[in-house]
């Protein structure tokens, strides 16, 4: 990343969520674009979102965000590399051979408290519901039903509303780790940013984390030495966090303790 003096030559990568992180305040998004033009040279850029690829691509275009090297969509179940023709087939094959959203339907659709999200929010590897103000008890019921039906899944709950069920191991953090390996970027040079529960896996892989100031409580409470909680909101929070890590990276190399690599677990 330009402006990183000592470590400028090492490959680096920024992985950021869109809604509530890089998007949400267009003035801040514009400042991120300028920041990226100055500092993002030679750094890989990845957007990781809960939305489907087509919807994400439209927002990236509308908000005039910098062109990414990859888009991780559907909360990590799909990865496309620029120029974004097809999803990476190997990624899906690696994880979810037996996955079927029909079985999720049988396990969960009758559960009171869950309301299916509209069809455009569903995908072959992600079944999504609204579960407003879900209690721990409801989430536990969901988990039990999936176990009873023999489904190996992750349950992601975000913003006190969105409940996603995806194959175990297919999350944003795992997708980012896959790309880091593919591009030979050390995890300490991967900077990740997010604002809600579906970003949680990004912070559990030994990357340098940034939680934006407007984050939902499930992330605002996250307290780890490898996660920086920004004061600023939306894209300004991403810039603040990147400046923090880049400054710290040159001033205090080796001081950051990283714990919990690969420790993510389904709920
Ligand atoms: C996006 C998706 C939605 C999902 C939510 C949280 O809003 O469209 O389906 O539930 O992200 O991951
Ligand atoms: Mg978000």
Q: Could you give the distance between the termini?
A: 35 Å
Radius of gyration: 18 Å
- Helical stretch tally: 8
Low-confidence stretches: 2-8, 250-267
- What global shape is seen? globular
Spatial strand order of the main sheet:
4-3-2-1-9-10-11
Notes on the protein architecture:
- There is one protein chain.
- The protein has helices at residues 26-39, 53-62, 89-95, 101-108, 136-148, 172-182, 217-220, 234-251, and strands spanning 12-16, 43-48, 70-73, 78-81, 115-116, 127-130, 153-158, 162-167, 190-194, 208-211, 227-229.
- With 267 residues, the chain is of the alpha/beta class.
- α2 links the parallel β2 and β3.
- The strands form 2 sheets. The chain has a 7-stranded mixed beta sheet with strand order 4-3-2-1-9-10-11, sandwiched between helices. The protein has a 4-stranded antiparallel beta sheet with strand order 5-6-8-7, covered by helices on one side.
- Magnesium ion binds at residues 17, 19-21, 195-196.
Features:
about 270 residues, alpha/beta, seven-stranded mixed sheet, about 30% helix, disordered C terminus, binds alpha-D-glucopyranose, binds magnesium ion
